Request: fold
Amino acid sequence: MNKKKMIRLTALVGVATATGVVAVANQAHAATTTTTETTNQTTNASVESTQAAVEAAQSAFDTAQASVDNAQANVTSASKNVTSASATLSSAIANKKVATSENIASATSAVSSQAVVVASASQAVSEQAGIVSAAASVQASAQAEATSASASLSSASANVASATSALSAAEAALTSDQSTATNNLSAAESAASSTSAAVSSDQAAVDNAQAAVSSAQAIVEVQSSDVINMSAAYITALKNYLANPSSANAAALQEVAKGADYVKELQQKFKSDASLDVVDPSDPAVQEALSVYAVNLINQLRNQYGLTTAFGASANANVAALDFVKKYYDDKDWNIFGTTGSDGQGHNKNGLDAYAVQLNTSIAEDAGSGLTTWVNGKATMATTTLHNLLYAVYSDIATMLFDDGGTNNWSHAQSIFEDGTILGTDGFNNVYLGLAFDKYGYAHYELYNATEGNQLGNNAYSLDVQTAAQTLLANAQATLASAKASLQRMTTNLMVAKAAVVAAQDQLAALENSSASDSAAVTAARTQLESAKTSYQTALATYQQKEAALEKANDELANVQASLEAAQATLATAKAKLAELEETVANLTNADQLLAAAQAAYEQAVANLTVATGNLEAAQVDLAKAEAQLALAEEAVEQAEARAEIATQVDQQLNGSNANDRQSAGQDATSLKTNGRSLTATVATASAANPKRGADQGRLPQTGADNQEASAMALVGLGMLGMATGLYGYKKKKLTK
Reply:
């Protein structure tokens, strides 16, 4: 009989037991109730019993599952051991093949050699360790000294701070009156200094103005007295040459010019005072005087020559001359005559062309030795006094007339006496002269054709030399008077400022005498501060020295430690290689033993794997059995729970009919449900007045009113039987693991 059939038979027996109680035909309703409760207790006990069986089956199943898992792990481990043993066996076989006496001897020799290397590396490590120890000792000492120096520096810094605070307190103790007096003295001294500088400036202005007056006075005397006279023969020869520059006319002109003793004439005619002050040739007033002087000399010559058109002089022409000479001679280091007169660069023709384009006019240039004299054939610069400047202009113009033969072909004279053209170039209808001296002392006479466009004739000078000179003198004298008046005012102010300084000094001295103790405290505090600063600087120098020594010791320690680590790494490498070589020797020497051990280990691993595999299969069989037992136990629980539910419903049905209320015949429909099915029983209500006991017990009732209650119990029994037979429809619970 299988277990399912056994479970179902048990269910039928349980129902029969419950219905058997109905055999008592005349049992009272109370007795029927008691029998039903007994049935409920029985079914509940059955549920608890089957539930305990499930728990036991579940425990057995878990134990079987753990056994399977453990057996599986043993199989996996044994399989790995077989693989490892197989590899070891293969290695032992290969080792056995190479374990010849020659290979063993060679490996043994390699071990000996490597042992020497290891010993040497070990010795190097020991030696380096000693060096590191010494360096560490030096570093520790340097660290201690640096720490001590740092503490000393901190102390010195604190002393400086304390002394600074003490000085501040001492200085604050001085009265505000003394501070005010000190400020007053500084202000008075500053005012006196400024006034003194103003006095010096005004004195320089007076000196300059006095020099300007002297120069103006000299110009007044000179302008109207200097004249260059040409002889009638010279004029005739010059006109002939300019009309026809033949060699014969050139020789005739040279002959006439040679006879003129112009040097002697200059000495006789030039009356300028040689004691005049040094002046700046680029000063506008001086430049005006020189250009007017030169133009008047030239216009006198042109008048003697018979020309009616005159040259002009202007400030604009002078400015243009200064600009041209600076740009194309001074800035370019262009020496027109050189140091010997024959090594010069001559006129800067490219510069003349460029400047003519810039000013949009025609330009001609004459040049003279100016302030340069020739001593032993070399050029020297004369002092730039007004006397020398005027003499240079006079000499240059005279020289252009009487000593201009040779390669120049009288071009200077031609530039002075042509009308409307210069050196064959047209466009000189309104000639203005600009005069400038270069840095070598040579004079440049720039002849411009002035137009409304280039404005070179603007700001023209008056050629009335006497009036111009007098105006120049009057202006210079007015400037001198103004400078003297300013000097007088500043001198008076300086006296007042000096008096204020003396008063402020007296006030400060009085206050200093009355606060001698405060001043002494300030002095002492300053002395203390200076001493603290000196100590701080000493401590700072010591600290820096010790820090440098510590840094050096740290670096040295780091270096030797690195060397030690390198030596240790070398030793470790040598030892590893030695161990590898020794292992090789051992493997070769013990090749037979290693092979035998590997073979045995392999065979044992295979045997262990076989055992583990058998254990796994047995555990799997036990697991299958435990799983089946668990399934049967769970199905029994379900059936027991169903029986308990039927008993509960029967009890509720019976308890719902009270014996005292059954006085009339009738029928109640009661629906009993189990496992999705509906079972209906018709129950007759018995009369309470006709109970029978005794002889009727032990048999089933057949007819009569006395048998109504028993019939009802029988119907209940049938209902339970029907519900029990419904258990066939339950399915086995699926195991979930």
Summary: The two ends are 28 Å apart (CA to CA). Residues 1-32, 665-737 have pLDDT under 50 and may be disordered.
